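Chapter review. Work through the record for DUF2141 domain-containing protein before attempting the end-of-chapter questions.
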Amino acid sequence: MAAAAPAAAGTVTITVTDLRNTNGVVRACMTTKESIFPKCRNDPNSYRTVVKAANTITIRFNNVKPGEYAIALLHDENEDGKANRVLGMAPKEGYGFSRDAPVRMAPPNWDDAVFTVGSADQKVAIKMRYFL
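Structure tokens for DUF2141 domain-containing protein:
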């Protein structure tokens, strides 16, 4: 009896718009782990990249296995590798999430950001948001 073929992997293409400037970089992560979203640091299977900031950015994650994913972006304007905050609360730098998930007094819920990746290529549009 032949083994079942593995599910086909696709490409997730993310278009990022509405950056307020071209300073620094944009840090992107895509994870299947609801328990750690929006941070991907502790997910060795997450898809992560860092790209130079520009007016519009295209990010591609290749060979993405089918599943449920959520994307978090940070416009790291000073390239210090972290989300800087005012008074420890309000974000100073831009952020964005898949499905344009809303940010209120905390990062968005998984259910607001999650989307399904199948075997076909997927396109995701994310607008960068700024609190200040």
